[in-house]
């Protein structure tokens, strides 16, 4: 059930980005990073995403999830270690509590792959929905990957 | 011709919720209100704890409650008997409160009362050990409850809730003589992932340990946690 809510949050966030874009575009793939130490199960998230994006601006988009392991840093041993989720979180060497998580808490939209008509890029003004959309445009790294 | 692009976002999935939580907290701060988010599995005793808390603290602290419940107002009705504003939020199918729902509760509080009169807002989250830990609502501190009937292994199985907690109440301590419950083991399990939380064993039924909880709330209102009352790390 919580994946439904997570997906809702995901769609809200992607929609915010989508609506800030000055030109119409088609989102192809949403790349997520999901840490092992979050309350999100990737398989459930994929299922919820497919179901909840039907008939929306994300229809047909793929969700690509990269999982990151739980890695903690032990300040006593000055070393990283991998806690065993469900079994043991303290440092296996010195038994210090897991206090500094270096990986595994990510719930991040890493990047979005999208496609656009060339014509739209060449004549952006003709396709603007509103001037507001341009103002809201966030600074993004745009890398044309193929034509 | 189509061209494909890659937009690097690096945006937290929950950033819309997080922004809302930050706004709620700012609003609470403007009114001089501290907000505690109470979380536990269903039936761990959040409402019973709140009943005792309202009965004991309302004479000295002006409290309002935001009550999250999936479908009913049963808990809210229980708490209204204590003469404090209880804003019920039915979350529907959602298994946790999010910052937008709590913003709605804050709006109602401001509409129906003078919010600046309040010292403390207690948010009773939906009973669930998983999701509420991930969705901040604008609280200044997280209070987790674990009843001893649930077993001392729960922190290992649901680590996020226990890792995030600023205060952990071990509830239903009056049942201890009837159970094979190992408080020491429970505390050791929590300490594996959370060395700083104050851990307070209580019983809402007998009142045992509640003075320590009330002390925690009082000292939280003064923004310095009185850890002398808690089980030391």
Question: Could you walk me through the main structural features you see in this protein, from its secondary elements to its overall organization?
Answer:
The complex is a heterodimer of chains A (147) and B (233). Chain A is an alpha+beta fold and 147 residues long. Helices cover 27% and strands 26% of the residues of chain A. Chain A has a domain of 76 residues: hypothetical protein PF0899 fold. The N and C termini of chain A lie far apart (40 Å). The C terminus of chain A is likely disordered. In chain B, α1 runs parallel beside α4. Chain B has a seven-stranded parallel sheet, with helices on both faces. Chain B is globular and about 75 Å long. Chain B has a single domain, classed as Rossmann fold (3-Layer(aba) Sandwich), CATH 3.40.50. Chain B has 233 residues and is α/β, with parallel strands linked by helices. At the A-B interface, α1 and β6 of A face β1, α1, α6 and α7 of B. β6 of chain A pairs antiparallel with β1 of chain B.
Briefly, what is this?
The complex is a heterodimer of chains A (147) and B (233). By secondary structure, chain A is of the alpha+beta class. Chain A has helices spanning 2-20, 42-52, 118-122, 131-135, and strands at 26-35, 62-68, 71-74, 79-81, 101-103, 107-117.
Structural class of chain B: alpha/beta
Give the class-level CATH name of the domain at 2-19 and 26-69 and 103-116 in chain A. Answer: Alpha Beta
Q: The CATH topology of the domain at 2-19 and 26-69 and 103-116 in chain A is what?
A: hypothetical protein PF0899 fold
Helix and strand run of chain A: HEHEEEEEHH
Distance between the termini of chain B: 64 Å
Identify the CATH architecture of chain B: 3-Layer(aba) Sandwich
Beta-strand content bin of chain B? 15-25%
Question: How many structural domains of chain B?
Answer: 1
Q: Write down the CATH topology of chain B.
A: Rossmann fold
Q: Please give the count of helices of chain A.
A: 4
Share of helix among residues of chain A? 25-40%
CATH-level-4 superfamily name of chain B: P-loop containing nucleotide triphosphate hydrolases
Provide the CATH architecture of the domain at 2-19 and 26-69 and 103-116 in chain A: 2-Layer Sandwich
